[in-house]
Design the sequence.
């Protein structure tokens, strides 16, 4: 019984040991050290740039933009090719290779007419 | 009435400093650091229980304040915002420490025991009175084993001296939740302390 009461008292003392605790302060010149740390971090611009590019939102957006540009140019080129073959079919009524090259040569000649 | 006027003056001062910092005023940043460095350091110290780590965390808090002050909308007190950043960084630090310990333990199982696991010495908070130093060291050890929410609530209330309402504001919770957290924290601490003192018989 005595031991139990003793332990109870020790527990209460421990629980109350933070009464009247005072706030701890950092060591002197905290602001000076903080500014030195911030200046050191600022100097490393490349690392910061890499950190920005590594952000998931930035990396994903950049990738999607590149893919979108690629898709745009790809489809533009495809449309150009289809127009030429469409013209040759319309002009000749058939798709023989000979006709295609004749038309292509003619087109080329027209493009290179000198004034 | 005078106290209310005085508090409003402090809040106005706080708002002016924050606005000046948003405009890139270095002297405002210095004033902010000097005003709140003790609060930030003491809070971090209560959680991580190591002065060097607490200072590193305090520096990281003010770096974040400098970089992201524009995201502070003023819907809470500036000190509340500071407390939240400090608690987040302190808990991140503790989680990293736990992961390191677990990893080192696993490596030691597989025979790679180059890294020696040393138990840290008892933590003595510099603000505790001399006659309470030993008891507080035992209590801080028990606090470090509490679940995160209980640990945060207990530290903010007992080490920083915040009221339950202020603790609730920091934790984005209600007073009744904080009361419940404190009740459970004290029960857990009591159990741990009883086990500790019983083992010393």
Sequence:
């Amino acid at each position: 019984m005595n031991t139990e009461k003793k332990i109870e008292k020790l527990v209460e003392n421990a629980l109350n040991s933070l009464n009247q605790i005072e706030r701890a302060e950092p060591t002197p010149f905290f602001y000076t050290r903080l500014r030195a740390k911030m200046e050191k971090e600022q100097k490393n611009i490349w690392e910061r740039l890499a950190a920005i590019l590594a952000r998931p939102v930035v990396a994903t957006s950049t990738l999607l933009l590149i893919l979108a540009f690629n898709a745009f140019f790809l489809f533009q080129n495809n449309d150009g090719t289809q127009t030429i073959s469409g013209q040759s079919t319309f002009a000749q009524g058939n798709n023989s290779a000979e006709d295609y090259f004749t038309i292509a040569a003619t087109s080329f000649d027209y493009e290179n007419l000198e004034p | 009435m005078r106290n209310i006027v005085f508090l409003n003056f402090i809040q106005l001062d706080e708002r002016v400093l924050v606005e000046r910092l948003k405009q890139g005023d270095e002297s405002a940043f210095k004033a902010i650091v000097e005003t709140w460095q003790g609060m930030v350091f003491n809070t971090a110290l209560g959680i991580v229980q190591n002065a060097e780590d607490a200072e590193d965390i305090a520096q990281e808090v003010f770096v974040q304040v400098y970089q992201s002050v524009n995201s502070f909308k003023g819907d809470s007190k500036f000190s509340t915002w500071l407390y939240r950043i400090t608690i987040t960084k302190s808990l991140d630090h503790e989680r990293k420490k736990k992961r390191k310990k677990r990893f080192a333990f696993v490596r030691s199982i597989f025979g790679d025991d180059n890294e020696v696991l040393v138990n840290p010495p008892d933590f003595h908070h510099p603000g505790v009175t001399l006659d309470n130093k030993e008891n507080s060291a035992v209590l801080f050890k028990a606090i470090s084993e509490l679940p995160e929410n209980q640990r945060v609530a207990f530290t903010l209330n007992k080490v920083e001296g915040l009221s339950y309402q202020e603790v609730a504001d920091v934790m984005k919770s209600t007073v009744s939740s904080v009361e419940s957290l404190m009740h459970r924290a004290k029960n857990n601490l009591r159990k741990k302390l009883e086990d500790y003192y019983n083992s010393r018989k």
